[in-house]
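Design a sequence for this backbone.
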């Protein structure tokens, strides 16, 4: 099997991580005078569990993966940044991303002084694997894929992702932030077969917990061990850990079903409007909609109190607005406003 450690930066492999007070004493009875905390209890005076043990157990059960294959981050943006810090030597290595896609891959790359090679999606937003792989060279450490992709909304077929995993001699990051809205299965069940696979998920979308900041990375044990050594020791605060624990025990099935059915409804209705040139099929919780005069539609919607995302100047998304699926009432309001603008 692929030796993932050979792809990691030497200084990171040799890193002696910070040892917290809780790493040095793990029992749970006693008087804690080892972390310079304030001793007066208020619910927040103690540091959070740096290893998120309880949280990872519940995530492992709910996702059907081993705890050793889970990294918990302050949003999936933390995991994206860690991919660069663990695998990419600044100014020497590069990563390959699909375009258009989620903007943080490029931002994280710039922060880490790592070159990004963007490979434009085809006109139907599919990935040309040959084109993608030919953008890679010996210094390419990671390929970033996003499925369903933001802002285009389409899935990358499983067979395409597997082909890339088989052929690429480096890390393949598959960002599944919107996977719960898709009919396509997650790649987290393929971790045993591919130790160059990192799957990103988040509680910010289907779980409705964007404000708590909790992102997940699933990967082979070696990758998770090293990512966990590099992260800030207390990256997930006490409140987030405890609320997420509660929330994960509840089901989000009905909300997901409602958002998906609203997406289908909105897709059909938007297609009837004269102002709308094209609605792209979506497996996510948003629709990419090509309209006549996008900037003027965007501004008119703002005047009506509806804020969508103007993606019209993104290469490949000419003329497009990205509309998040709201509540049924919000969607009716958006639709009625666009109907008015179509007259
Ligand atoms: C594809 C994708 N990945 C990740 C994120 C960010 O997730 P998080 O809130 O967990 O940082 C977003 C947010 O819009 C996204 O579109």
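Sequence:
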């Amino acid at each position: 099997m692929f030796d993932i450690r050979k792809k990691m930066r030497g200084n990171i492999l040799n890193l002696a991580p910070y040892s917290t007070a809780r790493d040095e004493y793990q029992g749970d009875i006693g008087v804690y005078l080892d972390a310079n905390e304030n001793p007066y209890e208020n619910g927040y005076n103690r540091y959070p569990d740096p290893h998120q043990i309880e949280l990872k157990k519940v995530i492992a059960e709910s996702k059907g993966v081993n705890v050793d294959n889970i990294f918990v981050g302050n949003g999936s943006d933390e995991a994206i940044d860690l991919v660069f810090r663990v695998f990419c030597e600044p100014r020497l290595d590069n990563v390959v991303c699909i375009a258009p896609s989620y903007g943080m891959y490029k931002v994280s790359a710039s922060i880490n002084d790592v070159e990004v090679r963007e490979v434009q999606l085809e006109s139907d937003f599919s990935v040309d694997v040959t084109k993608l792989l030919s953008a890679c060279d010996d210094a390419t450490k990671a390929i970033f894929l996003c499925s369903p992709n933001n802002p285009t909304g389409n899935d990358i077929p499983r067979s395409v992702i597997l082909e890339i995993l088989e052929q690429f001699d480096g890390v393949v990051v598959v960002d599944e932030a919107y996977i719960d809205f898709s009919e396509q299965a997650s790649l987290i069940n393929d971790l045993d077969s591919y130790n160059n696979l990192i799957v990103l998920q988040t509680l910010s979308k289907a779980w409705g917990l964007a404000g708590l900041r909790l992102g997940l990375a699933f990967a082979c044990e070696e990758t998770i061990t090293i990512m966990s050594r590099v992260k800030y020791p207390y990256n997930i605060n006490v409140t987030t850990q405890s609320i997420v624990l509660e929330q994960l025990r509840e089901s989000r099935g009905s909300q997901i079903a409602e958002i998906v059915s609203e997406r289908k409804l909105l897709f059909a209705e938007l297609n009837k409007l004269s102002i709308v040139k094209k609605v792209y099929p979506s497996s996510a919780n948003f629709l990419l909609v090509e309209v006549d005069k996008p900037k003027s539609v965007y501004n008119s919607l703002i005047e009506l109190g509806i804020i969508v995302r103007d993606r019209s100047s993104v290469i490949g998304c000419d003329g497009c607005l990205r509309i998040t699926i709201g509540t049924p009432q919000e969607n009716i309001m958006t639709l009625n406003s666009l109907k008015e603008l179509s007259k």
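The domain at 253-342 is CATH 3.90.1150.10 (Aspartate Aminotransferase, domain 1).
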